[in-house]
Amino acid sequence: MAEPHPILSLPGFLNLVGPVKTDLEDDGRWTFSFTVGEQHLNPGGVCHGGMLMTFADHVLGMVVWEAIERRPCSTVTLNCDFATAAKAGDVVEGEARVTRKTRSLIFVNGMLTCNGNVVLQANGIWKVLGA
Questions:
Q1: In angstroms, rounded to a whole number, what is the distance separating the alpha carbons of residues 91 and 39?
Q2: Which of 14, 41, 43, 53 is least buried, going by the fewest C-beta atoms within 10 A?
Q3: CATH number, domain with residue 28
Q4: How far is CA 109 from CA 41, 77, 106, 131, in A?
Q5: Burial of 24 (0-12, 13-18, 19+ CB in 10 A)
Q6: What is d(CA 105, CA 28) in angstroms, rounded to the nearest whole number?
Q7: Which residues pair with 35 in a beta bridge?
Q8: Strand-pair partners of 121
Q9: Is 70 helix (H, G, I), strand (E, B) or coil?
Q10: How many domains does the chain have?
C-alpha cells in the first residue's frame, strides 16, 4: 500500500483541538484519525464527548465535501450516539458514507471506532451552499 498524502495543515478550530490526521490515499479514499491526548480528556478521564462530536463533524463533512466536488457546504444537523469510551493513548478512526443527495442537501452517516469497537455513530445533513 502506498503512503498516504496528508493534508498538512487544517486551519482554524481543528488545528486547536487536534492534532487530527486527515489523509487522502492514492485510491482517492479519505482516512481520518486522532490519538486521544490529555487535552482531549473529560474530568472522568476519557475522551470528551465534544471532541468526539467535533471529529465526527469533520469526518462526515469531509466525505460530503468530496461527494459534492469540493464545493462549500455546511452542517445542518448532526446526531450522535455514544457507544463506548476512548482513553488517553487510544487511536480513534472515522469513516462515513453519503446515503442520499439532493440538489441542495446531502445525507450522510458514519462511525468512529477505537480498537475495533464503535465509539460513536453519527448521521447528519449538510447544505450545499449556493445551491
A1: 14
A2: 43
A3: 3.10.129.10
A4: 25, 11, 10, 21
A5: middle
A6: 23
A7: 91
A8: 81, 111
A9: coil
A10: 1
- Model confidence over 62-80: pLDDT tens digits? 999 999 999 999 999 999 9
The 10s digit of each residue's pLDDT in 1-38 is: 444 445 445 678 888 888 899 888 888 888 999 999 99
Is 90 exceeded by the pLDDT of residue 94?
A: yes
Query: What is the phi-psi region of residue 45: left when phi exceeds 0, alpha when psi lies from -120 to 50, beta otherwise?
Result: left
Answer for the pair 94, 33: CB distance below 8 angstroms, yes or no: yes
Question: Rounded to the nearest 5 degrees, what angle is found at the Cα of 79, between the Cα atoms of 38 and 49?
Answer: 15
Structural domain including 31 reads 5-128
Q: Output the pLDDT for position 16.
A: 84
DSSP SS3 for 56: helix
Q: Phi then psi for 115, rounded to 5 degrees?
A: 55, 35
Nearest to 68 by CA among 98, 31, 27: 98
- φ, ψ (nearest 5 deg) of residue 55: -65, -40
Q: Residue 57's closest CA among 116, 103, 4, 125? A: 125
Rounded Cα distance between 9 and 27, Å, is: 21
Mean pLDDT of the chain: 91
